[in-house]
Recover the amino acids of this structure.
């Protein structure tokens, strides 16, 4: 049994839960608050965190069953990608 792999796997699960929580927090805010929070998150996070949030936000929007929430998540995703493009001075593409 490789404890290092087990611990790394558990850490990845908790990180995934944290990323989902961030996106859910944005959904619980009004649009202005969410945009402010997204901008701060993208401006102040390491690339790895931005990449994870990019994937999480896109997947949450795609899998959403509420039309109202899905519309807001798509709007948040467009803003997220805009802020990311401004930060890195290039469009970094979509999660693969």
């Amino acid at each position: 049994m490789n404890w290092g792999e087990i611990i790394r796997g558990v850490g990845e699960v908790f990180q995934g839960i944290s990323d989902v929580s961030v996106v859910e927090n944005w959904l619980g805010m009004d649009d202005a608050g969410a945009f402010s929070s997204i901008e701060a998150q993208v401006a102040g996070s390491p690339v790895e965190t931005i990449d994870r949030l990019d994937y999480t936000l896109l997947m949450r929007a795609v899998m959403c069953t509420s039309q109202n929430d899905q519309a807001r998540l798509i709007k948040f995703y467009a803003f997220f990608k805009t802020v990311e493009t401004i930060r890195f001075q290039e469009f970094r593409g979509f999660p693969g």
About this structure: The helical segments are 3-28, 31-44, 47-63, 67-88.
